[in-house]
Design goal:
The protein is mostly helical. The chain contains 14 helices and 3 strands. It has helices at residues 2-22, 26-29, 32-54, 61-76, 109-114, 118-133, 136-144, 147-153, 160-172, 177-193, 199-209, 219-222, 227-238, 251-263, and strands spanning 86-90, 97-100, 104-108.
Length: 266
């Protein structure tokens, strides 16, 4: 009996300790979330500060307003806080857009000029917003750069070479294939909920992958491989779904927006 009682006591103590440990919020206890958030903000701000020093930023209220008009339905219908996105337009011929940590969304003027319609542009922007919303940006950097390295540059070790490596990683290398597909499908879902037809986004991927007129300027396509396959799975995904033909900008407004971007001078 004494042995049985001792055994039951040990078992009871084990489950008691297990229950107590299960009640601890380890994320809060070790402040992991706080460290991650601070690191993400620090890295995002440092990269954007570096970009501002080396690139021509488009600062124009009418251009910004039109871009906001395109983004607002996407955010509103998908529960995305618009103010959480820090949107920047860079005057550069490259057909490119990329996300930085802490909600920075960088768009090159070349992408706007290359987009045949607003749906194509919205699809690309939705793709990059999906990377932000689904935490792909920090996952990519943590995997390829290392979280400890990211933390180190936000706590005094402002290594220029590390910042340049981060910029290169985010602007000119692809995410894992699974994350790219996730961002594509998420963007399509964003568009469907906002009653925007995703088919032109698929057309953009397909057409641009074969467009030689841009030479080496097709950064967004070249860093997102298998564009033809991506166009096909997007079209397959929306097959049979009710597609709205809602337009945000009139054709005149869209043409005026592209012209203003093209004609912009610092």
């Amino acid at each position: 009996m004494k042995t049985l009682f001792r055994g039951l006591t040990i078992v009871g103590a084990f489950f008691g300790i297990w229950f107590l440990l299960s009640q601890i919020d380890y994320i809060t206890f070790f402040k992991i979330n706080e460290a991650k958030s601070a690191t993400e903000k620090g890295v995002g701000d440092m990269i954007w500060d570096q970009i501002k020093k080396t690139e021509d930023i488009i600062v124009n209220d009418s251009i910004t307003k039109k871009l906001d008009e395109l983004l607002d339905p996407l955010c509103k219908e998908n529960g995305i806080v618009r103010d959480s996105l820090k949107v920047h337009i860079i005057q550069k011929d490259e057909v490119n857009a990329f996300a930085l940590p802490d909600g920075h969304l960088v768009i090159y003027s070349g992408l706007i000029e290359a987009s045949k319609n607003e749906q194509a542009l919205i699809g690309v922007l939705g793709h990059e917003i999906a990377h932000i919303e689904n935490d792909h940006v920090m996952k990519k950097l943590s995997k390829e750069i290392g979280f400890s390295v990211l933390m180190s540059i936000t706590t005094g070790n402002n290594s220029g070479s590390v910042i340049r490596e981060i910029m290169h990683t985010l602007s000119s290398t692809a995410y894992d294939r699974s994350l790219e597909k996730d961002a594509d499908i998420t963007s399509v879902e964003y568009m469907l909920k906002a009653k925007i037809d995703p088919a032109p986004f698929a057309d953009f991927l397909y057409d641009m992958s074969f467009d030689k007129s841009f030479g080496g300027a097709l950064s967004w396509i070249s860093t997102h491989p298998e564009s033809e396959a991506r166009a096909k799975y997007i079209l397959e995904y929306i097959k049979g779904k009710k597609l709205e033909k809602k337009m945000i900008l009139s054709q005149k407004e869209w043409d005026g927006f592209k012209k203003a971007v093209n004609d912009y001078e610092n």
